[in-house]
Amino acid sequence: MAHLLIVEDDELLRDALGSLLEHAGHQVSMAPDGESALAQLAGGAFEGVVLDLGLPRIDGLTVLQRLREQLPTLPVLILTARDGVEDRVAGLNAGADDYLTKPFNGDELKARLQSMLRRAKLPAFGQAEAPVAIAVGGGQVTLLRIDSLMPRAWLLDEPVELTQREWELLALLIARQGQVVSREDVFAAWQSESGEAAGLASNALEVYVHRLRRKLAHPALNIRNIRGLGYMLELGNP
Fold first, then answer.
1. Contacts of 230 (CB under 8 A, 6+ apart)
2. Which residues of 138-161 are buried (b: 16+ CB within 10 A; e: fewer)?
3. pLDDT tens readout for residues 77-100
């Protein structure tokens, strides 16, 4: 199915994860620390990463940040004992696609991974690109375009790399430009194969919205928070 890298310093847990995911049909490689993980990521073709945060040599958040610099679209699931809200937010801000705390259920882990890998391959639209144009003077200027096959976009022809969930969120906002996209709409789009919503707390959605605002910063583009309802993509004059 997919070639996964498991980054975990606990040998027993690492081996158990490897067996679990191999029995699920995946090809598995393993790294016991952050330094080894970065070396393997630099030389291997992986389709997903299961990443612990409490790693020796190089900690997990640093691994994720460096990974995102070189492989901005590679799906990453954080699997850690750190269960505080601040830890979850830090992991998502660093670029993780999903976050699961230890102890965990093996079936849930497999479902989360499958959902994450599936999102990595799904198009957001049935057309090549979805443009968002603004009026400048007497003509139109394409402000924003989104790829239908890969998690990326262009802001005034400058490329913007997105994670899977950022891409799907942006796709929803563009598809309903000028209309409210509810939190329920977003979580439905992130729904896992097991039928459970993406498993993220409501405040995690705020993290993704904040990241999109930062990546798409432009005076004519605004992702507006409609209190109690959701979010809306608004356009104005540059």
1. 180, 181, 182, 183, 185, 186
2. eeeeebbbbbeebbbbbbeeeebb
3. 999 998 888 888 888 888 888 889
Assess contact for 146 and 130: CB atoms under 8 A: yes
Domains of the chain: 3-119 (3.40.50.2300), 129-235 (1.10.10.10)
| CA max distance for the chain | 66
* Alpha helix stretches (DSSP H) within the chain: 11-23, 34-43, 60-70, 85-93, 106-119, 164-175, 183-189, 202-215
Residues 44-65: pLDDT tens digits?
789 999 999 999 999 999 999 9
Distance (Å, whole) CA 210 – CA 45: 30
Task: Please tell me the pTM assigned to this model.
Answer: 0.59
